[in-house]
Amino acid sequence: MGLDPEFFKELLSMFKLECQEHIQTMRAGVATLAEIEPSDEQVEISETIHRAAHSLKGAARTIGLVDVEPICQSLESCFSVLKRQKVKLPMELISMLQRAVERLNDLLGTLDEAGKVTGEKSELTLLIDDINGKVATLAR
After folding, report:
1. What is the pLDDT of residue 121?
2. Number of independent structural domains in the chain
């Protein structure tokens, strides 16, 4: 059951626009997390970033980006933990989160007309694993 090529092309175009919105939300959120003290605002921002990662994961699933979906799931899990915390995030973690969002943006930029990412994702996957390890130690 293949999609009509024109419909898929339109779906892919919408996905790319939606990706940019979610990436921008994550960028802005992480930048704000770097500047604020532990507070209800921190929890709200983490929730916003969590929703952006969740929406990006769902959009990736919709167009069959099986390579991107687990990466978004890992980021979503990270922010799921952070939204339940009111702790000062170490700058090292903030920097890693910023790099992860940029690497995800780079990876999504390699999306071809067939709906496949052609970029290398192993560095991003390792980075997100490291992030989740650091977040887990904050949760203790």
Report:
1. 93
2. 1
